[in-house]
Each structure stands twice: as structure tokens, then as C-alpha cells.
Specification:
mainly alpha, Arc Repressor Mutant, subunit A, Tetracycline Repressor, domain 2, 2 domains, globular
Length: 247
């Protein structure tokens, strides 16, 4: 007798208790994010967050067992929000070939950082005292999502062989071996010369944003956006010239 195929079971909806816990957890994260926005990352205080919600610190510990657990949630959310902003910028300009995707992504990154300087500082400013992100945890996974976007926009259209033959500075054998064993987050394996170019490009892009967010390029006034776009175009042209030289 034939046995009818099994029907995949439908996951049970979250219970009322689970929904209430999720809502309370989100409320705590939102309150902590607001506290950082108003006072800066270094001033994050579980007691102040709990007080703003009309709850005790002991009650807050039912949702986040430690300050580090809350910080991890905040950093993960900030990375996710930043990545979503970068991807949204790329998606919105998908039909516009006049501006390269890398430039669009970089400008999305810059806008988010300028609009949310305290959260940007949480991600890239002075590390919070005594906090260490969990190894291979949610903060790492969230940051890799963003890395994959920039890698895609920089190297789109090039083959692995072309990237492997990129005209990068001479890599020492130890550095090449280290780059070869790094975990990869984009599409396909990135050869060491391309990884070196990617890190150099990222340092240039991120450095300009840091300078602007912390007020070090304010002397440029309203021209900062134009300078940034010009720098990103030049950066991309330089990377592509290095790859194409040996194709």
C-alpha cells in the first residue's frame, strides 16, 4: 500500500508570552538606542535605560542578562540598519548608469553616518570599556553583510583570474597566506591581491566618512558631498585600472 507523501508541518505561531517578550525586548533596544543618540555610546547605562521605561534594572536583566548582551544587540541593529541603508541606495539607483554602484553605496554609507553620528560612533568610535563582541557572533555576521555589498560593487564584472592578476603591491608570503585563509563573505573566493585592494579602498572610503562625521572636514562646508563623490570615483577608477592592467 502506497504511503502518501508527508505534508510539511506549519510552524506554530508565537505564543502570547513570546510576543510580549519580543515586544519588551524591542522596546528596551529602542530606549537604549535613544539613550545613545542623546548622550553618546560611552554614557550607556542599564539603570538609565530601565528608568526611562519605568522598570527596574533587575527586570531588565530578564531580557538582557548583561550589559554586553544589550550592547551586542545594539551594535547588531546598527550594522543591520547601516547595511539596509547602503543596499537601499544601491537599489534605488539600479537604473541609473551615470553613477557607479560603488559610489552610490559609499554615499548611502556616508548619509547614514552623518544622520546618525552617535550610532556610527558606537560602531566605529572608541570601543566601549570592557566590551568584547562575541566571536563569530551576530555583530560579525551583520558587518559581513555590508562587506559583501561593497565587494560586489567594486569587483562586479571581473573574473577570478582577473582579480588574482590584479596589480596590487607586492604581498609578502605570510600576508598572502593569511589573506588566503580569511573567511569570505561575497560571491566566490576573493584572491589575495583583490582582498588587499578591497581593504585599501575600504580604508580610504571609511576614513573620509570618519573625518566628516567627527567634524574634521567642516572647513569644506557644503562642498563635502562633492569632494566625497569625486574621491569615490577616483578610488574606483584606480582599483579597476589595477585589475585591467594585466587582463
Amino acid at each position: 500500500m502506497a504511503v502518501p507523501p508527508s505534508t510539511p508541518s506549519t510552524p506554530s505561531p508565537p505564543s502570547l508570552r513570546q510576543r510580549r517578550r519580543a515586544a519588551a525586548t524591542q522596546e528596551i533596544v529602542d530606549a537604549a538606542e535613544l539613550h545613545i543618540t542623546e548622550h553618546g555610546p560611552a554614557a550607556l547605562s542599564l539603570r538609565a535605560v530601565a528608568r526611562s521605561l519605568g522598570m527596574t534594572v533587575q527586570a531588565l536583566y530578564h531580557y538582557f542578562p548583561s550589559r554586553d548582551a544589550l550592547v551586542t544587540a545594539l551594535v547588531t541593529k546598527a550594522y543591520d540598519d547601516l547595511t539596509d541603508a547602503v543596499q537601499a541606495a544601491v537599489d534605488s539607483a539600479a537604473d541609473d548608469s551615470s553613477v557607479p554602484g560603488l559610489v552610490v553605496a559609499a554615499e548611502g554609507y556616508r548619509r547614514w553616518a552623518i544622520d546618525r553620528p552617535e550610532l556610527f560612533q558606537l560602531l566605529y568610535g572608541t570601543p566601549l570599556r570592557d566590551y568584547a563582541a562575541p566571536d563569530e557572533g551576530p555583530t560579525t555576521q551583520a558587518s559581513r553583510r555590508m562587506s559583501a555589498i561593497f565587494e560586489r560593487e567594486i569587483f562586479a564584472g571581473f573574473t577570478t583570474d582577473q582579480l588574482a592578476a590584479a596589480d596590487a603591491p607586492e604581498l609578502s608570503p605570510p600576508l598572502r597566506a593569511y589573506l588566503e585563509q580569511l573567511p569570505h563573505f561575497g560571491q566566490g573566493q576573493l584572491p589575495p591581491p583583490a582582498t588587499a585592494l578591497l581593504m585599501s579602498a575600504w580604508g580610504h572610503l571609511h576614513g573620509l566618512v570618519v573625518l566628516e562625521v567627527f567634524g574634521h572636514t567642516s572647513f569644506l562646508g557644503d562642498h563635502q558631498a562633492e569632494i566625497f563623490r569625486m574621491a569615490m570615483r577616483n578610488l574606483l577608477e584606480d582599483v579597476h585600472r589595477r585589475i585591467a592592467r594585466r587582463t
